[in-house]
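name: query_chain
kind: protein
chains: 1
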Amino acid sequence: MSASRRARRGRVTAIAAAVAAAVLAAGLTAGCDAVDKALDCVQTADTIADSVTDLQQAVENAANDPAQAEASLDSIEKNLRKIGDKTDDADVNKAVDELTGAVGNVRTAIRDGDRTPDVRPVTAAAGELTKVCTS
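structure:
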């Protein structure tokens, strides 16, 4: 297993533990449905983080394979729809909207011929999504 995969697995474990602790601290007043939604958010946010990593690598190689960047953007958008469909949390929805916008900007830049679009807003928005999923 590569170091980046181990780091991702460790991140998932840490995020899941944070969610579990927050739910337990709240006394489980919201029930199992809230726990399931929180874990879904965390798992999907982690998948998005992986897709963002793939996007960063794809952008570095965009001159050789622009389709790889498009595939990464498609993956991120698919996972954002999953989160958006499963939550009614205003903060999560705001983070999803911000990340969707950032992804759209990168997609537009690539389609307009930018071989090195700035993916920092995507990375920042993905970090914010992870943050709201664990708070």
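note: Residues 4 and 50 are 10 Å apart (CA to CA).
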